[in-house]
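User: Sequence for Dihydroorotase below. Tokens please.
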Amino acid sequence: MIDTLTLRRPDDWHLHLRDGAMMQAVLPETARHFARAVIMPNLVPPVVKSADAAAYRDRIMAALPKGSDFEPLMTLYLTEDTDADDVAAAHASGLIKSVKLYPAGATTNSNSGVRNFDNVRAVLEKMAEIGLPLCLHGEVTTADVDIFDREAVFIDTVLDPIRRANPDLKVVMEHITTKDGVDYARSADSGLAATITTHHLVINRNHILVGGIKPHYYCLPVAKREEHRVALVEAAISGDKRFFLGTDSAPHLDHLKENACGCAGCFTATNTLSILAEVFERAGKLDNLEAFTSLNGPRHYGLPLNEGTITLRKGAAVEYPKHIATPDGPVTVFDPQMPLHWSVEA
Ligand SMILES: NC(=O)N[C@@H](CC(=O)O)C(=O)O
Ligand SMILES: [Zn+2]
Ligand SMILES: [Zn+2]
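Assistant: Structure tokens for Dihydroorotase:
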């Protein structure tokens, strides 16, 4: 029986750190285990210009625990006013590693996102030219499309046309939640990849709705039917280079989730690696965990693999905090509803 597992240090290709006191509280949870993370730009106001990204990066560096060598990978929030030259300069200087597209209204703080995709054409063309990846929140927002269908409709009506118009554009489908997303990511041999979150490997829509509404399992894109969860697990454990980890760990204060209009997001930074090891072990694919957490992401982004390793050890059920404290109240850590046996060695 395998009871230790050494992995190249992992990266998180989709992470929300927020700002201020919240960032101070959640940043150690990621920096403890991960070497790098792509830091989502959906702050209020959003991280739109290169100067915003530079300032945000400085605030993250200042908030890091002493001695941490965690590296935030910055991204710009694409708006219809984004200037292609500002993006290109931010890329050339090494400040940003991607640009993030939110359809307006699709998710938390996405109101400055894109309504008319024609208005971002010049930026996308520039990105294709300079090799800068586009990350997308892939859901349409039209009221007449059912929330459970929004990812599949986005792929057909927005993503596929963008890729046809820009065949050289490198794309990351963020936090895919459906078999449709898996199949589409598999349809291209290069230039297209998808991140998968920890929680979407564990929950389906029953976790949110059966036996009373469970706000801590509500996130966007919303978890789908079991057959979609199974497709996500198959993709993640396959070792296929087109799939890698983006936790989408998204902290919200408990009182804002346990609310008549609860915020979307699951906070998984604390126990993500233990959960992933459990999922991969149950599938008999622990051998492919490193590809998912540490190899496929940097290869898609064209970044070096991390030096150094982390070790996971199997033993008695892992203890982890149920909440992270912030000055404004607690943030609930995602409960995978199963015992976890793999802990990350300090
Ligand atoms: N995933 C979520 O449910 N929420 C994210 C936004 C996002 O990634 O769409 C957040 O910022 O809270
Ligand atoms: Zn999103
Ligand atoms: Zn997110």
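The CA atoms of residues 319 and 340 lie 8 Å apart.
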